[in-house]
Amino acid sequence: MQCPGQDRRSWTADMAFDIPCPRCTHAVEVFKDEQRARCRRCGHRFANPKGAFDCANWCEYAEQCVGVSASRVNSLIETALAHRLMGAVEGRLRGDTAGFARSLLVFQHAGALMARSGGDARIVLAAALLLPHVSDVVPLEPEEDRAPGGSSPLDPVAVLRSVELDEAAIAQVVELLEVFRRRAVLDTPEFRNLNDARLLAQLATERAAPEASRRDQGHALAADLGTEAGRQRACELFGCGGQVA
């Protein structure tokens, strides 16, 4: 008997979705039960950030079904919080698929970097999804003090409260986004990881640009990577040093 959760005959249209390839940004169709995806344009294989294996947290047949035991499932998929955040951001973008793809691209790089380095993953992953829309960042302040109509569709405070992130963490995410909006620098592992995720996303985008423009910009971005994990990922994806081949 096939697991009902893995039987695609019972799935709805939202069980398949497009994910940007972290190497070339090409849209790759992925199903919710796929652990990894492969880009048909460049051949790169990458983890599915929207994979839904929640049942593996409790199902005794998880290891036979998805290839990992229930005790190890959290190392395979993003946390429930990350999935709620993705849903909240996607919903507020109201059909802006290109905007959500930019969020997912930064998110994918941030998740890969957090697996190799320190920092608070909740803060970095939440900020990664919001960072491409940083111009929409509003200061953290009590709701009753906000001017009517002053919130944008991607008001980070509203997004983060909708997924029940605690207020202390919300304040840290907003502070981190404010640093990027002001083009400032923060000496924390969260800033370094998020900044490298941003640069890696830009580098992937430049690889899809015309040859003349991507060469200089790609090299300049790679030179700005601030973590060893970021430099390793640039080397793995784009060639050592992040140079564009």
Structure description:
- This protein has 245 residues and is mainly alpha-helical.
- It has 2 domains: 1-77, no CATH class; 79-238, Hypothetical protein af1432.
- 46% of the residues lie in helices and 7% in strands.
- The strands form 2 sheets. Strands 1-2 form a two-stranded antiparallel ribbon.
- Mean pLDDT is 77; it is low at 66-78 and 136-152.
Number of continuous helical runs: 9
**Strand-residue proportion:** 5-15%
Question: Termini distance?
Answer: 48 Å
Let me know the number of strands: 4
What is the number of independent domains? 2
Instruction: Tell me, briefly, the overall form.
Output: globular
Q: Which stretches of 5+ consecutive residues score pLDDT under 50?
A: 66-78, 136-152
Biggest sheet statistics? 2 strands, antiparallel
Q: Write down the Rg.
A: 19 Å
Topology as H/E string?
A: EEEEHHHHHHHHH
Describe the strand arrangement of the main beta sheet, using strand numbers: 1-2
Outline:
This protein has 9 helices and 4 strands, in the order ββββααααααααα.
Keywords:
245 residues, mainly alpha, Hypothetical protein af1432, 2 domains, two-stranded antiparallel ribbon, two-stranded antiparallel sheet, 9 helices, 4 strands
